Amino acid sequence: MKYTLIINPKSGKGKIKETLKTIRRKLRYYELEIKITEKQGDAVIFARKARTDVVIAAGGDGTINEVINGLMQKRFSKPRLGVLPLGTSNMVARSLGIPKNLKKAIDVILYNRRKDFDVGKVNDRYFAIACGIGIDAHAYKNVEPKIKKMFGEIAYPISFFKTVFNYNAELLTVKANGKIYNGYYVLVCNIAKFKNLLQIVPDSRDDDGLFDVIILKKRNFPDLLRYVFGLATKQVHKFKDVDSIKTKKLEVISSNGVIAHADAEIIGTTPIKLKIYEKELEIIC
Question: Of 14, 170, 172, 277, which is most buried, counting CB atoms within 10 Å of its CB?
Answer without folding.
Answer: 172
